[in-house]
Design brief:
By secondary structure, the protein is of the alpha/beta class. The chain has eight helices and seven strands. The structure holds shikimate-3-phosphate.
């Protein structure tokens, strides 16, 4: 005899906000967009994507190979198209390459369709994180720290156009950073008089 299946036992788990708009992490190389982004996506139970990984997969080449063979303008064009495609998917966490938000068309698309979060970090912290990691074509320079400093100076006013700013602190765990982002986005939602909120609190 087949037993009637018992009703599922409800398991609500810890209360997590429901994500309504994709959270796009922006900021300089080394800010922790990918590592913190993965943790944030797990926390919110949503998909995580990394625009650099998607561009590399679409091109069948690594990021340095794309820069070397096709050039930076082709990379930026691919980056814009990949990000536009990813913003069509269901809400999730999207980590972008450091230059994506600097491109006016890419920035406009992110501003229109997602909630942007600048992971802000000081130069010493960024440098400590990128100095021994190859694979960033813009830092293949005799004085890579000076390049990073120059990018930071020129790009910071643009990153500051993000909806939400969260400081990346030395020694803060990915978990702590992910929770700080959720809190900052919730604050931003509640400060806005109108508009669809990014997070729906349980
Ligand atoms: C870039 C940052 C890189 C990558 C490419 C260009 C930039 O991504 O997109 O090397 O212009 O700052 P990360 O910020 O993930 O290192």
């Amino acid at each position: 005899m087949i037993e009637p299946s018992s009703p599922p036992i409800p398991n609500p788990g810890p209360a997590v906000p429901r994500l309504r708009r994709t959270l796009v992490l922006v900021g300089l190389m080394g800010a922790g967009k990918s590592s913190v982004g993965k943790r944030l996506a797990t926390l919110l139970s949503v998909p995580f994507t990394d625009s650099d990984a998607e561009i590399a997969a679409a091109a069948g080449m690594s990021i340095p190979e794309i820069f070397a063979t096709l050039g930076e303008p082709a990379f930026r064009d691919g980056e814009r198209r990949v990000i536009a495609r990813l913003l069509n998917e269901r809400p999730g966490v999207l980590a972008t390459g450091g230059g994506a938000f600097i491109e006016p068309r890419t920035r406009a698309e992110i501003k229109r369709r997602a909630t942007s979060v600048w992971l802000r970090a000081d130069l010493d912290l960024l440098w400590d994180r990128v100095r021994d990691r190859p694979g960033r074509p813009l830092l293949q320079a005799p004085d890579a720290r000076a390049v990073l400093e120059d990018l930071s100076r020129r790009r910071s006013p643009v990153y500051a156009e993000a909806d939400v700013i969260v400081d990346s602190r030395r020694g803060a765990s990915h978990e702590a950073m992910a929770r700080a982002i959720v809190a900052a986005v919730a604050d931003w939602d509640s400060a806005r008089a109108a508009g669809r909120p990014s997070l729906e609190l349980p």
